[in-house]
Amino acid sequence: MMYGLLLHFMGRSTRVVFHRSVGVKLHLRLTGWIGVPVHELGHALFCLLFRHKITEMKLYIPNPQGDTLGYVRHEWNAKSRYQNIGRFFIAIGPMLLGMMALWFLSRFMVRDFREMFSGAWLQNELMARDLREGELLGFLTAYFASLRDMLRAVALSDRLGDGWFWVFLYLSISVASFMGLSPTDIKNARSGLVFIALAVLGLNLLSAVLRATGLTGSSGPEGGPWRFLDIHCYEPALHGLMGVIGGLLMYAIVISALYFAGAYLLLSVYNLARGRGFIRPF
User: Fold this and answer.
1) What residues contact 147, with CB distance under 8 A and at least 6 apart?
2) How many domains is the chain partitioned into structurally?
3) Does residue 187 belong to any structural domain of this protein?
4) Contact 252/102 with Cβ under 8 angstroms?
5) How far apart, in whole angstroms, are the C-alpha atoms of residue 185 and residue 91?
6) For residues 176 and 8, what is the distance between their CA atoms, to the nearest angstrom?
């Protein structure tokens, strides 16, 4: 959720830059017509998956004067544990669907896309390990190394001579600019997070009991059915998945930051030329 708030902050700052220079309408015409519907579809997709009833949905309201560019209104059964867990995924749905969109865009539009993300993927696996072991310095080192590797992969890439790469950058900037989580999204996510935490705690307790009894350990039957209930056997796959997710989020942060920096520089020049002074972006 930290990444979601950071993306929201940068997206909002970019909109402020446009608002204080040429108007938000240009920003919406450039990127909002793609990014806002993807954001709202992220909410809607997980409403369907967790059986929430969608009562009203607007994928895109191009009104630069309004605070709301789109919305998904839904109802759920407050007594249903499954639907309450769904509130967490519905809230972070824009970030999840945004990452999926970035993955497919990079998979089909970027040559050697694995090489492009490999550095960030590796650093994010190290971050997950250091965070689990309480190594704060190692975590921060890996975090900034991941940002460095992703920035180098985008800004200093030999792919810049490829026209499809520029199309990929435009589409991914449009998605990343609106995949952040608003404070309202974070608030809604916290309510579902309690149920997820309890479920994870239960799985950990079950795994610990099974290992203590030897059913999933070396003394138990190798390859037996109980081993599938031991969450430790899924750790390598989970670490790899977290590396991929972290790499995609790092990419979203980097291109959002580059978009903000580019917009700020160009529109500040425009404002200075018209005698308006520098733009205050925050």
Assistant:
1) 250, 253, 254
2) 1
3) yes
4) yes
5) 5
6) 9
